[in-house]
């Protein structure tokens, strides 16, 4: 089994750095009326390291809040799934949040036996899979290197009894409404009509707290 499954979207899609070139993507975004840069440009190994450091800053309340919430609600969310289910996490270069769900057991059996992390950061996914081989040997880990803002083909999961999508981090709050709706439509199509979906999002915040 390969360390990562190439979902094709980040390498074959028009917005992928390998197909259009970083300079062309940056030029298009920065010359638009509303300046933008796609997050896929940020998450090379150094970008991932810097982001993890940011999440530990006192001002960055999101991660601390979400981890506390997951500690409370993960058992309830996992209880809605059959034994032998699959967890598909969007934007998953680190397994910290998914671990709350992957630890769930019922009748001494793991609820989730397959984990599909999807992220643009291929090296981080490879490192995660290696860590999880030691930490969670009962979980089949099938990483997908892809930009989840484009269509993503999921790997085969033989024996799957159910599937839950997982999109933490309030990442959906970074998207314009149309982009968020399109993402949810694509996720539903990929996961299937009977899938569950656990979404983490922040409330509206006073700029005095949000800007720092």
Walk me through the structure.
Helix 7 (122-135) links the parallel strand 5 (112-119) and strand 6 (140-141). The chain is 40% helix and 16% strand. Strands 1, 2, 5, 6, 7, 8 and 9 form a seven-stranded parallel beta sheet that branches. It contains nine helices and nine strands. With 212 residues, the chain is α/β, with parallel strands linked by helices. The protein starts with a strand and ends with a helix.
Number of helices: 9
Number of strands: 9
Q: What percent of the residues sit in helical stretches (DSSP H or I)?
A: 40-55%
Note poorly predicted spans.
1-6, 8-17
Mean pLDDT: 87
Order of helices and strands: EHHHHHEHEEEHEEEHEH
Category by helix and strand content: alpha/beta
The radius of gyration is 17 Å
- What is the strand content? 15-25%
Q: Report the principal-axis shape.
A: globular
End-to-end Cα distance = 43 Å
- What does the main sheet amount to? 7 strands, parallel
Write a brief structural summary.
About 40% of the residues lie in helices and about 15% in strands. The N and C termini lie far apart (about 45 Å).
Helices and strands in order:
Elements: E1 5-6, H1 9-12, H2 17-20, H3 22-30, H4 45-55, H5 61-79, E2 85-90, H6 98-102, E3 105-106, E4 109-110, E5 112-119, H7 122-135, E6 140-141, E7 144-145, E8 163-167, H8 177-191, E9 196-199, H9 207-210
Parallel strand pairs: 1-7, 2-5, 2-8, 5-6, 5-7, 8-9
Antiparallel strand pairs: 3-4
């Amino acid at each position: 089994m390969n360390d990562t499954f190439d979902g094709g979207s980040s390498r074959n899609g028009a917005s992928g750095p390998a197909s259009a070139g970083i300079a062309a993507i940056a030029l298009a975004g920065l010359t638009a009326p509303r300046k933008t840069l796609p997050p896929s440009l940020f998450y090379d190994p150094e970008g991932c390291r810097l982001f993890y450091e940011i999440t530990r800053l006192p001002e960055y309340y999101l991660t601390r809040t979400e981890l506390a919430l997951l500690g409370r609600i993960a058992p309830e969310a996992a209880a809605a799934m059959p034994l032998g289910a699959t967890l598909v996490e969007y934007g998953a270069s680190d397994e910290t949040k998914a671990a709350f769900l992957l630890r769930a057991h019922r009748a001494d059996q793991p609820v989730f036996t397959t984990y599909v992390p999807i992220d643009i950061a291929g090296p981080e996914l490879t490192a995660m899979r290696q860590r999880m081989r030691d930490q969670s040997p009962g979980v089949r880990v099938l990483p997908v290197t892809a930009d989840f803002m484009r269509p993503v083909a999921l790997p085969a999961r033989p024996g799957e009894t159910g599937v839950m999508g997982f999109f933490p981090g309030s990442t959906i709050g970074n998207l314009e409404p149309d982009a968020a709706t399109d993402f949810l439509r694509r996720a539903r199509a990929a996961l299937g009509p009977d899938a569950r979906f656990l979404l983490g999002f922040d409330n509206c915040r006073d700029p005095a707290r949000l800007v720092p």
